Amino acid sequence: MSTRDRQSRPRRSNHPEASYDEASRARYRVRASRPGGSGSGGADHGLAVTRRAFTALLGIVAARLVWLQLIDGPRLAAAAAEQTTNVATLRARRGTIYDRNGNVIAMSEDCKTVYANPSVVTDPSGVADVLVDELGGEKSAFMELLTKETTFVYLKRQVDTDVASRISERLSELELEGVYYLDDTKRVYPYGNVGAQVLGYVGTEGKGLSGLELYYDDVLTGTDGEMIMETGADGTPIAGGASSVTEAKDGTDLVISIDIDLQQACEEIIREAPETYDAASGSVMVTDPRTGEILAACSTPLPDFSNISDTMEELSLKLVSSAYEPGSVFKVLTTSIGFDLGLFNPDSVYTVPAAVLVGDDYVTDDDNRDYTEDMDVREMMRRSSNTAMSLLVQDVIGAQRFSEGVARYGIGSATGIDFPGETAGIVKSLDEYDGATAGSMAFGQAVSIPMVQLVRAYSAVANDGVPSTPHFLVSKGGEEASWPLGDPVISAEAADMETSVMRTVMEEGTGRNGQVEGYDVAGKTGTGEQASEEGGYGAYDFTASLCGFVNADSPEALVYVGLNHLPHLASASAAKVFHDVMAQTVSIMGVKPVS
User: Fold this and answer.
1) What is the Cα–Cα distance from 469 to 401, expressed in whole angstroms?
2) pLDDT at 172
């Protein structure tokens, strides 16, 4: 070994060697002094880590609680409530409708709504068999309802109480569960189909769908209540469980102007008239011209409450919703406008030619005379002369004054009748007149109106020149309705002259067949040609009418009768129907004869 090698070796210590135990302890001390060792410093660090982890976990839990309670809480609460409660509607009782004499003509009757909790129904087929027997319908439809994954389904609404009782008894005997019952109401009409057009009808949801039931729906309809029931997990109501009830508020009662006996009589008459006179349809309205109260109103075809699938034709009151050319009943307006202006009186005489040029066409009379004739205004109306009316408007009254007079009568404007679907008709304003307008309107052509406008116009003649608004409502909730009269459209003197002329029509002229023995009737017939789809007027296609009032010095009733699309003149058709309606009116309403 070289000297260099020996010098490079470490020198031995002069101390004795350490024992094994001492060496181990030394190594332990070295490890314990390092970070993470298991000495007292390492233990403190581990506890700190644990505390931090626990604190973080608590923070997460707290945040979740805040979310659930403050943010998502309402949704979860609502969802939980929905799963543990059932809400049932408590139907308000709809207001009763009375006729003018206090007869109940529309009312709500107690009935039941039948519903089920499919989660409780263990034998859907057995339950469905009972329902089909008692309620009718198809078993498959009930099976579909009874097997739905829900806790509430309607089976049928507005079930008669005795039928619901039978269902309950049969299901109980068969130990079939899951069918329940709620108190409900349904609309009934004690007089059946009488007045159906006027009253209208109510759907299963309790809303008026036509007639006065629709027009006064907001008044008749009450406010439904509700019952909230606590249920178990399967949806079954818990006996003694929490529940709340909001009581229903019933609707308001109405008294209307209809006399149900007169209404029935008018419907029977007008139902037969179209067949008797080959007409497509017919209409009747009876009013008190002093107030505008409608005593009866109907038009054919009449609806049937047992078949609510009727079209709008059956449900509509054509006197209000349909417009026609009125024909010669319009001559009352023409002559009264002249009387009011002081241009002539019933005894004023004019030379009337056989034909009068109106626009590009000549107007002639039904008698087909070929000579000129002197006539006073009374005779013009007695004969219902078209040529004379055209002459008066074109040569005496003038287009402007005539147009203004027609407007004062409210022709072309809604009457304000309390009934849905009123049309204003088609009436030209003065600036729309052509060469034929005034001369044609003079006898009721070139104008199309609902006949309720004519009824309002005639009420002015009957009422010293002051029109009344045709209406049904007399009172609601015991409070009398207010129906102010309109502004005068002609003077009282003009109304008296017109009434005198109308008496002559009924006594000696085209209205003779409408006269009622012992009574003073003033009226005017009308035969209006109907416009064809091809243009012009159809041959022998008329609207025949008669409108008049009884005991003319103090009128108590006004009657309008109209027959549509028939081949006969008014004197031979509508006048006879008018007689029958007026005779029933004076009898039922207690109008005394004058002689």
Assistant:
1) 24
2) 95
